[in-house]
Amino acid sequence: MVYAVPLIIFMDDVSGNVSKQWNKHHAIYMSNANLPREMLEKEFFVMKDSLHKAAESGIVMWDCRDEEEVMLIPSGLFLAGDNPMQAEECSHAGLNCNYFCRTCDVGGTKEYKASEEGYNSIFKSGNLRTPEKTTEDIQHQFEAAMKSGATTKVQSAVSSTGIRDSTLASILESLVELGKKLRKRGAGLPATAKSEVTAMLEKEFEELLQGATLNDAMNLLLGMNGINMHLDTPTEILHTILLGVVKYFWGQSVFLLEKAKFLHIFQSCLESVDKDGLNAPSLNADYICHYKGSLIGKHFKSLAQVMPFLVYDLVPQTVVNGCLHNQAIFSPVTSMSQSPQ
User: Last residue of a domain, which of 55, 80, 105?
Assistant: First the structure.
């Protein structure tokens, strides 16, 4: 019997590490997506070994239930992580760039997004990104690095696509800086010939690659079999939704409640809300109202499910409509995010 084992791959860095004892590194672990969620949450179901060979030739094991040999063939299902890490995995420049989405090419310049047409466009899906197109964009940046005015051209290439490969960032910067030095004309000296500058840059590029090709040196995840990095990095709920939209609506609602001196009424409503049927374990009204500015994800998961029923007659109708809209869109997601089923 042969079993397919889809893997959820999680990766994160320790960029906040300031200790001299530990260098910056990436922590990666994988879990079996075939298992139910309540089992995945248990530590002993986290896989800690490299499965590269197993993905190529499979793993022969003994099935103690059916008492027979079986072969397990693991494969990547999707890559989980926070938004900055997933952007890096996609060779994307992140949420602050002009084309801020790692999945499609929605976006534009700051001026365009501030216009009516541009603002409306960011709520529509753009053309889907592909690993092949991302690879081409990275290659184009290195072509620009070989030319005069490389700094501006490379920046333009990044800002017009949203693509930036952190794996090759140091090499790209080295080429740009070397090009500046080679083209800088000394006092009373003739400028270095263009062909000579290009030859020296190409030689430096080869040395920096240490015998590898550009495609081999860039983000290897772009060529990962069975996974499209732009499509298989699902949006992280915590920072994108709970600590994003839901948190901002909570902050605005609290501001209005305090201004109208209705916060104590809200607290009473929150204390009396019927929790039957809700997947909301963190609705401690006293804590939520006392530490209203320091809530974390689990509180927003719970509040997102009940807010419209608590503030419908305490805040302006526009805010109620916003809460209803958020609940319709996000409540199923936030409810599922804390369910072990």
Answer: 80
**What's the pTM value of the predicted model, to 2 decimals?**
0.76
Q: What are phi and psi of 295, to 5 degrees?
A: -75, 160
Q: Are residues 107 and 212 in the same domain?
A: yes
- Kindly state whether residues 323 and 202 are assigned to the same domain: no
pLDDT 10s digits, 212-254: 999 999 998 998 888 899 999 988 888 888 888 889 889 989 9
Q: Which residues are bridge partners to 303 per DSSP? A: none
Region for 183 from its dihedrals, namely left if φ exceeds 0, alpha if ψ lies in -120 to 50, beta otherwise: alpha
Asked if residue 110 belongs to a domain, the reply is yes
Buried b / exposed e along 275-291 (16+ C-beta atoms within 10 A) = eeeebbebbebeebbee
Domain limits for position 133: 86-223
Residue recorded with tokens 């809700």: 278
Instruction: Please tell me the distance from the alpha carbon of residue 47 to that of residue 63, in angstroms, as a whole number.
Output: 18
What domain count does the chain have? 3
